[in-house]
Amino acid sequence: MAIKRKVKEKLKSNKKLKNVRARIKPLTAIKAAVKADKKTPYFGGQELAVEKAKFSHPQPACPAHPMPGELPGHYGISRMVLLARDSSWLYTWWEVGPGIFEELKRRLGEEFYKAKRVLRVYDVTGIDFNGANAAGFCDIQINDYAENWYINVAPAKSWCVELGLLLADGRFIMILRSNIVATPLDEPSCITDEEWMVPQELFARLYGMGLGAGRASPGKGWQARIGWGSMSSPVKRAVK
User: Which of 68, 85, 186, 209 could form a cystine bridge with 155, CB 3.0-4.6 A?
Assistant: First the structure.
């Protein structure tokens, strides 16, 4: 009997242990859920996405183009440009392409190093300039590193400029030639607008339109009505 009693008690204790374990499992699951809930934001996933979107910086639809750098100092093209700044001053700038001075050094030899670099300014007013038929010219000596120059000239004339080398024997070797420009007047123009006379018949029609006669002539005697031909001062009459 004592053995049966002990067996029964042991079975009862095993049942209690199982019940406790069964109760512990839900508690463990609840604790795990609580831990996961702590990791989840209070406002939920959707609200968190909205908050993050406020501070997001999406990439633009169009690719960003790189900012252009500074303009190059030279373009490798030989050219000379002449501009009229005002009635008394011209401005010219030029660029000598690569290889030109090397070719001149080869051709001229020692003369190249003795030559002067000059701007030859031509007066080409009223002339179809071909390089040899200018009304006159003057030379301006410049330094070897100049790439632009201001030139004082007379107003109301046309000008062309050449960059070249003036050799010791007086020969001029042209390197570049500019376009032709004209300086404006330095005073008001003496040319006035033409004054056109209105034919009498046309004037009569215009006058008739003013009187309500349409396009027809106002008839005879319209000159007297407007005082045609009587442009003298009024005559004073004696008071009786």
Answer: 186
